[in-house]
Alpha/beta fold hydrolase (Amycolatopsis silviterrae), 269 residues
Amino acid sequence: MQTVLLPSGARIAYTDQGSQPKIPVLLVHGHPFDRSMWSPQAEYAARNGHRVVVPDLRGYGESTGPEVSGLDSFAEDLIGLADHLGLSRFVLGGLSMGGQIVMQTVRDHPERIAALLLADTFAEPETAEGKTARNAAADRVLAEGMAGYADELLPKMVSPATLRENPEVTAHVRKMMHDAPAAGAAAALRARANRPDYRDSLQQVSVPTLVVVGSEDEFTPVADAQLLHQLVPGSELAVLDGAGHLPNLERVAEFNDVFGRFLDHAEER
């Protein structure tokens, strides 16, 4: 693990592995997780010739700094980290909130993106009901901590089959959520409540794009992924059977196979 102090005042912790004969990859975790969420994909892509950078978002994991005011704060941190590491263009991937941060980054810095991975995420702005719910959740975790909130989320984060059959993944997901700093999680919830509509900017995307979703995802169902697939010209869509909101952990081999073939395709462009 390494850290860098960015101009924003954020100190970002990150892993940087693999060589760089192929296009570099930057992966963005979701809420309320940390960079370990992407470990299977980082190891896989690094073995296959990619330099892979995976940060903890500001306020999560081992990253610290001023509370974010919007998803654009996360996007600027990603660009600041890429600048520090000398990554002029890179594959950018994210899951759930991480996918929305990816969309914000593409909107603000399209020239930096060589290809996109959008996993279990959606592009629409928050509804009035959703804003109320996210702000209430932020108030709750600040008052009570993460434990109760995390335990309630767990059955929706992974599929019933994962809960029954994969205690290792279930324990990893639970630990990430329990360990998430409450202040960082609350700030991100409020930022996400105020996110913009990304649909118009996605229609302007001209780089290879892979959309992935678990067939059992309750938070971002297959219909959300299908909309992303329709919005992004020439994108690919992969639905991973039996996975919930975290197919990269629940169906590692299938996810890595789809992602690896996509990276090969992006390398050819």
User: Anything to note?
Assistant: Residues 128-144 form the longest helix (17 residues). The mean pLDDT is 96. The beta strands are 2-5, 11-17, 25-28, 52-55, 90-95, 113-119, 209-214, 236-240.
